[in-house]
Amino acid sequence: MNSTAAYIEANKNRFISELIDLLRIPSVSADPAFRGDVLRAADFLSQKLREAGADKVEICPTAGYPIVYGEKIIDPDLPTVLMYGHYDVQPADPYELWNSPPFEPVIKDDKIYARGACDDKGQLYMHLKAFEIMMQQNQLPCNVKFMIEGEEEVGSNNLNTFVQQNKERLRADVILISDTGIIANDIPSITSGLRGMSYVEVEVVGPSRDLHSGLYGGAVANPINILCKMIASLHDENNRVTIPGFYDNVQELTTEERTEMAKAPFDVEEYKAALNLGDIYGEVGYSTMERNSIRPTLDVNGIWGGYTGEGAKTVIASKASAKISMRLVPNQSSEEITEKFQKHFTSIAPKSVKVAVKPHHGGEPVVTPTNSVAYQAASKAFEQTFGKKPVPVRSGGSIPIVAMFKTELGLDTVLMGFGLDSDAIHSPNEHFGIFNFLKGIETIPYFYKYYAAMSKG
Ligand code: BES
Ligand code: MN
Ligand code: MN
């Protein structure tokens, strides 16, 4: 056993219990009721960063939740890795679907169950512990900076300003993020792209008040009926999005690229079984893996209006609303897509209703280079600890700040995640495998080692 593995073996119980302490803090950024907890998570991390040996640790205020910063500069002439993560988590509702309370972490079948276990507390904490190991063993081969934010799950609204105002402090050679996943524990992979996002909320307003559905039904436009019709019309019979110009800038992959992609292991039957699906579904002409990575989509994320309480109430609601997200791929622009959506959605509404479209956060898609020194270093690190060369995989999720880092700091990102699709992030019973947590801690120092070594030559 080498020294890193030995250190992990000797300290793994403490690593896990520290993570559990972090997971106990309900740092839900979306809900102001948790404000104090979100701030407590930032405190906790700043203290742990300091204990691990970081200098200039600071809780940097923003207009929203603070950014935890820390660094270790061993030699200004050596390369610098800028680690990014987020300490905020998604809301835990619906609570009743959790087998154990979301903020009272439990270990079951070698997995830690808690909101944020994988996304992203478990994954960001791997970096703190990997840093601790490198510091303790005098092995840190280059400089490192940590930037851990508290608003990722609500659109990273204040990170852009922070980055713009701190360009010098954040100067680095590469960004390193663990907030994605691998294909399986025996099939390591490195995420080579993320989708972008346009998120909108729509409201359809009909009559000025709720109406008796017998006295008025059939004679006035029912906003819920209309909204459903409008939403249904956003896809055609091939499950393609009907918004004019939606696909205009979509980069089509070459046949070779698609063939290469199809080599990544994927079993449709297993996929169906895991989600209890009667059948797969999606845009005609594309595989499941393509549908959730290289193709843009439009999905309703929530829809409401009218009476949803116990029993029956005969009413035509005055309003109906929906939240809709569109996942974007290179070279779609979130601003353009939001605009096209707004124009189209307003244009398809009958005169009998009024429609309002409110844009929420957006983010640009990215493809990260797989020929860079940093990617190669990550690849070698995975190969070292998993015993297999990782495959590059484009993910369907979004981390909007990755494109922003490229624009603002000119830096590419290495997406070195260790989660699994089955970890149920954003869902009840989110969990993170202890294997994955410890493997991440073991793999990260190798990334630093190879990255520093390969940057020299
Ligand atoms: N870590 C996820 C994104 C992710 C997960 C990417 C798994 C790839 C694989 C991140 O925290 C997230 O949830 N992002 C949001 C977007 C954000 C603007 C709310 C998403 O993808 O919905
Ligand atoms: Mn995340
Ligand atoms: Mn998330």
TrEMBL record:
It comes from the Bacteria. Gene3D superfamilies: 3.30.70.360, Zn peptidases (3.40.630.10). One of its GO terms (biological process) is proteolysis. Keywords: Hydrolase, Metal-binding, Protease. CDD domains: M20_dipept_like. This is Dipeptidase. It comes from Adhaeribacter arboris. Residues 193-351 form the Peptidase M20 dimerisation domain. The keyword Metal-binding applies. One of its GO terms (molecular function) is metal ion binding. It holds the Pfam family Peptidase_M20.
